[in-house]
User: Fold this.
Amino acid sequence: MKPQTVDPPRARLPGAPFLAWQGGELQLEGVALDQLATTHGTPLFVYSRAAILAALAAYQRGLAGRDALICYAVKANSSLAILKLLGEAGCGFDIVSGGELERVLAAGGVAGKIVFSGIGKTPAEMRRALEVGIRCFNVESLAELDQLDRVARDCGRVAPISIRVNPNVDAHTHPYISTGLKGNKFGIAHDQALQAYRHARGLPGLRVTGIDCHIGSQITEVGPYLEAMDRLLELVEAIEADGIPIHHIDFGGGLGIDYQGESPPAADALWAALLARLDARGHGQRALVIEPGRSLVGNAGVCLTEVLYLKPGEQKNFCIVDAAMNDLPRPALYQAWHAIVPLREAAPQSATLTWDVVGPVCESGDWLGRDRALAVRAGDRLAVLSAGAYCMSMASNYNSRTRAAEVLVDGSQARLIRRREQLADLWRDELV
Ligand code: LLP
Assistant:
């Protein structure tokens, strides 16, 4: 992620055209965000239904005419209303825990469209996923193959599996969100994959159905995907030559979004390039699975926050807001950059200063944006943009802060999809 830079007061809006200025006010679809903050309080996450569906439509266009299943990566934003929206629009789901499985089912998701990724599935999670009949387990180690075989035989089922291959491809992204390199904990090394498939073939509780990879997140180039595809197809050919049919190829997720002027390929352009490569290598008929998360929801959401205090100083000016690293952990965790803009246009005479926008949490790492040019006063409200992915789903209760409320906007309508957490919720499960 790029270094901090000054945000021009009238920056481009990632999230446009669904996010736009109307009569001096920031609106998401047809809803004025300042009014929503008044109604529901802050911090408040607000998502655009149309923006999510438009992002999905780009994938659907790109994969039109192919046997392809888009499995939304639940971890990006696991709120039930978002899952329901994507499920009803035809998505399957990529899950990484028993909790995500239950969320998908609670939101009406179809078990037969769920793929289960992750390196540490417990026997109980495996059993439950087998009972409900998920589409595929993406297995990440030999030990997991053996465990899944035992669990499946134990409950009289056969587990459909893919092996997640670590193709050793550099996705050119932040080290914490790069997953397809040899040093990462994910997947089975490319040069051990064939052996792992041979092992899986011998296990009666397993049925090989596919192959899987995921090389990282916030990827902004086509190159790493093409490289991973080449590496995967080599393997598919070797595995099939060995007599093990591979039904589907799962290419994972990872497509980046525009936070700060990045220009990742559009989902349909990415898939045009990938399908061309598949066709050229004679694999055009393959069933495909993909696992996009961030690119479906990231730019469909914003987080609204109110300025509590201004604290100008000798070295730094601090703009203290009521959202913090517990609500928006990405800046603290990855030095991530999110645009921050006011909800109302500043009065013409107001002065623009450079501010560090920080939260109330007692950590110096609790900042949302550094060196941002803003004309702000206490009581003003700001929007942290590109906050639809990996914000609410990573939110915590650190400093005993309750988690924010969430609203889904549809045209001129706004619907509360998560009530603000109540203080008593925080110690509900504690024993004195
Ligand atoms: N499939 C698997 C197996 C994954 O591990 C991930 C993300 C995805 C799909 C979805 O990737 P996406 O399309 O969203 O890039 N918290 C970090 C991102 C972590 C991503 C982890 N894996 C962040 O805020 O940047």
